[in-house]
Amino acid sequence: MAFHRRPKQPSRARVTVLTTAAAAAVAISAQAANAAPSAKPSKDEVKSKVDKLYEEAEQATEKYNGAKEKQEKLQKEISTIQDNVARGQQDLNKLRDSLGSLAAGQYRSGGIDPSLQLFLSSNPDDYLDKASTLDQLSGQQVDALKKIQDKQRELAQERAEATEKLKDLASTRTELGKKKDEVKAKLAEAQKLLNSLTAKEKAELAAADQARATRASERATMGNSAPASGRAGAAFSAAQSRIGSPYVYGATGPSSFDCSGLTSWAYAQAGVSIPRTSQAQANIGTRIYSQSQLQVGDLVFFYGDLHHVGLYAGNGQVLHAPHTGASVRYEAIGNMPFQFGVRV
C-alpha cells in the first residue's frame, strides 16, 4: 500500500510577511486613488512665469537681432570682395594680354626674350625677385610684369579674406538659427501657460494690463516733463504714430516691431541712423543716469544686460514695444529695472 506525504503547510512567519505586504499594497493603491490632483497655478503665478519667459525670449531676440545684423553685414562685405576679385581678374587678364602682345612683337622681330618666355609658361614671382632677371627685360616689360605681380598678390589677399568671411558667415547663420529656436521655445512655453487659464482669468489679466497702459498714457500726456530736442522730438513723434502696433520679434516696422526695432525705426524717421540692437544703441550719445534729467525722446535702457530699450515719454513713463502678445504702448518706467538713458 502506497503512502501519500501530507503537503507542507506554510510557516506562520511566511504567512505574516505575505499578509503585511498585501496590506501595504492595498494601502498604497488607496492613497494613489484618493490623492488630490496637483494644485493648478493661480492666475498671478501664471502671469509671473509668463512675464519671466517673455523677458528671456526678449534676451534671445536681441541676440538673434545681433546675429542677423552681422549676417547681413558679412553678406554685403563678401559680395563687395567678390565683385572686386572679378574686376581684378579682368584687369589681370588684360595685363597678361598686354604682355603677350609684347612677346608676340619680340617674336616677330627675331624671337622671345628667354626671361619673358619663362614668365609666359609659369609664375613670374621667382624671376621678379631676382635682379638679374630684370636686367634682361626692357623697361616696358618690367613695368608690365610688376603690375601683374601686384595684381596677383592683391587678388590672393582678397580671396583669402573672402574665405575667412564665408566661414564667419556660416557660424553666424548657425547662431542665428539657434537663437530663433530659443525664442520660439520660450514663446511656446508662455502660450501653453496662458492656455491653462480660464477665459475669465485671461480677461482679468488683459483688463489689468490695459488699465496700466491707460494710466501710463495719461501721465505721459500731462506735459510736465522736459521738452524733447529737435530730432529726439521727431523720433518720439514717429514712435507715437505706431502706438497699437504689435510686438513681433525681429521686426523693424513699419507695421510691427520689437523693442530695438521700434527705437531704430523711430530715429530713422527723424533722419538719424542708430544701431539695430539695444546693446549697441546703449553705446551711442551721452549717458544719463538720473531719471530726473531725462528728456522726451531719450533712449532708456532696462535690465543688467540692456536687452530692453524704449523712448522716454516724460513724467516717469516710457513708450516702447514690450513683448509678444502686447503692442507699442506707454508704461511706467518703474515697472522695469532702469539702468540709464542715452541722449542721441
Reconstruct the topology from this structure:
Elements lengths: L11 H23 L8 H66 L5 H8 L3 H4 L2 H5 L3 H57 L3 H22 L9 H11 L18 H11 L8 H4 L4 E3 L10 E4 L5 E7 L2 E4 L8 E4 L5 E6 L1
Antiparallel strand pairs: 1-6, 2-3, 2-6, 3-4, 4-5
Helix pairs in contact: 2-6, 8-9
- Portion of residues in helices? 55-70%
Distance between the termini: 116 Å
Range of strand content: 5-15%
Order of helices and strands: HHHHHHHHHHEEEEEE
User: What value does the Rg take, in angstroms?
Assistant: 37 Å
Shape: elongated
* pLDDT averaged over residues: 81
Count every beta strand, where a strand is a DSSP E run of 2 or more residues.
6
Report on the biggest sheet: 6 strands, antiparallel
Helix count, DSSP H or I runs of 4 or more residues = 10
Strand order of the largest sheet: 1-6-2-3-4-5
Class by alpha and beta content = alpha+beta
Low-confidence regions: 1-7, 12-30, 107-112, 130-134
What does this entry look like structurally?
With 344 residues, this protein is an alpha+beta fold. A hairpin with an 8-residue loop joins strand 4 (317-320) and strand 5. Strands 1-6-2-3-4-5 form a six-stranded antiparallel beta sheet. It is 61% helix and 8% strand.
Task: Name some characteristics of this structure.
344 residues, alpha+beta
Q: What's the short version?
A:
The protein is of the alpha+beta class and 344 residues long. Helices cover 61% and strands 8% of the residues.
